[in-house]
């Protein structure tokens, strides 16, 4: 009988060799690519006359640079057009499946792979994108990699990588109304810090996590990287299997697959390198006030004073006060916002949009506020439209866009202007993240973004439920 974590078991099953330097050569079951981090990798293959070893194990989509309004080709932005043409050519030349615009499955890479059933428990997954940690929601070991590693995976289907330690993060108890998976992960990062996860995989467990649906689990695992962890995962259970069943790439031989997946879950007596516990009852709707995802507070709290912070966090807090234009001790509720963005691989899925629409129903976006919804993928958009969610958003004064990363990092026309403040359902609030060098980002749940949109200020969504 094995006595290990899912991480250990999956790692062991994919270990090809221990390299002389101590790293593991890890077999990668599924490789996902997008237009930003793949061009150079393919260029390096071409230079060396190499081919893609297992083209059927790589799947591509376009997400970062695609416009969300006018998607007519060629794109108005010549650089964006060049990037998509390059990806199209690379996929064609090397025999890689590309879920392009209009394919019915295009979208943010971390949204589409689970939707297609490509992401499965027990897999090793790599993608040239830090938020690859998202796929861990299914009990996969999913690693974000750099461009030279994208080349390595294309050429060899393996990766040289150091083994991680595992921290068990147990969250128990019921979430209050108006408190979501996004608040749980912002709370965890706020508590542990943005660097605590360095060298670790985060295993999320406990009754709160078990009660979450797959979209919510993805929100949690997605932001593992913002807590410093290279990957995060949740042991597969019935919720996982129910989500995957009958998806296009789900195993045809279903029962044996489920049995195998079950055997990979962490054993009850598995040994962890570290363990921490949280109580869901102590979590409020959480909003970031600063310039890292760790600078978050409950919506009913005040921006911390320097003296309240550990010495190691004070310099960054001082920098954040200045950049964000907030005063220590100021209540975060009531802070005016100008742009409201719902979308991204953190919170652009169907259950996010349902919850956002529930809050938007019968309300109006405040005059002067620009608010828009960007579904995470073409299937999310179709599903939302089938349910009439787009009509709720449009009636409330939100724009309803086409799928992509959009203003999460603003590599397309969706950008903040000047010092605008955004309420954003995305995952990073770094300086200049949303397209303007001075733009300011407040991270929060999609429901909280709607609350901000209809009031024009940071507002506790619990008051609107
Ligand atoms: C463009 C890409 C390399 C980047 C990432 O690695 O995460 C982006 O997706 C992001 O969210 O910042
Ligand atoms: S939605 Fe944002 S975080 Fe996710 S892959 Fe795109 S840019 Fe990165």
Automatic annotation (TrEMBL):
It catalyses: (2R,3S)-3-isopropylmalate = (2S)-2-isopropylmalate. Binds 1 [4Fe-4S] cluster per subunit. One of its GO terms (biological process) is L-leucine biosynthetic process. Keywords: 4Fe-4S, Amino-acid biosynthesis, Branched-chain amino acid biosynthesis, Iron, Iron-sulfur, Isomerase, Leucine biosynthesis, Lyase, Metal-binding. Its cofactor is [4Fe-4S] cluster. It comes from the Bacteria. [4Fe-4S] cluster binds at residues 345, 405, 408. Pathway: Amino-acid biosynthesis; L-leucine biosynthesis; L-leucine from 3-methyl-2-oxobutanoate: step 2/4. CDD domains: IPMI (cd01583). Residues 8-456 form the Aconitase/3-isopropylmalate dehydratase large subunit alpha/beta/alpha domain. Its EC number is 4.2.1.33. SUPFAM superfamilies: Aconitase iron-sulfur domain. Belongs to the aconitase/IPM isomerase family. LeuC type 1 subfamily. HAMAP family: LeuC_type1. This is 3-isopropylmalate dehydratase large subunit. The lineage of its organism: Bacteria, Bacillati, Cyanobacteriota, Cyanophyceae, Gloeomargaritales.
């Amino acid at each position: 009988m094995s006595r290990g974590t899912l991480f250990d078991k999956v790692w062991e099953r994919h270990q090809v060799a221990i390299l002389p330097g101590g790293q593991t050569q890890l077999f990668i079951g599924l490789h996902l690519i997008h237009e930003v981090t793949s061009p150079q990798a393919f260029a390096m293959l071409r230079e060396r006359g190499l081919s893609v070893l297992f083209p059927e194990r790589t799947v591509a989509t376009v997400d970062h640079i695609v416009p969300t309004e006018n998607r007519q080709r060629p794109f108005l932005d010549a650089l964006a057009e060049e990037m998509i043409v390059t990806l199209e050519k690379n996929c064609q030349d090397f025999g890689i499946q590309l879920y392009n615009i209009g394919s019915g499955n295009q979208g943010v890479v971390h949204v589409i792979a689970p939707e297609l059933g490509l992401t499965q428990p027990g897999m090793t997954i790599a993608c040239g994108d830090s938020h690859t940690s998202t796929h861990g929601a299914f009990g996969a070991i999913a690693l974000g990699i750099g461009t030279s590693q994208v080349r390595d995976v294309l050429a060899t289907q393996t990766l040289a990588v150091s083994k991680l330690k595992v921290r068990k993060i147990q969250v128990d108890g019921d979430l209050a109304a108006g408190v979501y998976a996004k608040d749980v992960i912002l709370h965890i990062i706020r508590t542990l810090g943005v660097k605590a996860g360095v060298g670790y995989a985060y295993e999320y467990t406990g009754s709160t996590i078990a009660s979450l649906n797959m979209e919510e689990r993805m929100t949690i695992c997605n932001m593992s990287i913002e807590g410093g962890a290279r990957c995060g995962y949740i042991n597969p259970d019935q919720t996982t299997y129910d989500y995957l069943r009958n998806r296009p790439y789900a195993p045809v031989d279903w029962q044996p697959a489920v049995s195998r997946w079950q055997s990979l879950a962490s054993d009850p007596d598995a040994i962890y390198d570290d363990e921490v516990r949280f109580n869901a009852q102590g979590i409020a709707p959480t909003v970031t006030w600063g310039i890292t995802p760790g600078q978050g507070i409950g919506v009913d709290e005040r921006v911390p004073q320097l003296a309240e912070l550990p010495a190691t966090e004070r310099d960054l807090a001082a920098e954040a006060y200045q950049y964000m234009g907030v005063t220590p001790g100021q209540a975060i509720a009531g802070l005016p916002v100008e742009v409201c963005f719902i979308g991204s691989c953190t919170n652009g899925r169907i259950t996010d949009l349902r919850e956002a629409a529930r809050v938007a129903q019968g309300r109006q976006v405040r005059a002067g506020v620009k608010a828009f919804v960007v579904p995470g993928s073409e299937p999310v958009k179709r599903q939302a439209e089938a349910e009439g969610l787009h009509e709720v958003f449009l009636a409330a004064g939100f724009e309803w866009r086409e799928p992509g990363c959009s203003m999460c990092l603003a590599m397309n026309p969706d950008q903040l202007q000047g010092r605008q403040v955004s309420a954003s359902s995305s995952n990073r609030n770094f300086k200049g993240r949303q397209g303007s060098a001075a733009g300011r980002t407040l991270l929060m749940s999609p429901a909280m973004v709607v609350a901000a949109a209809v009031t024009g200020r940071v507002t506790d969504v619990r008051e609107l439920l």
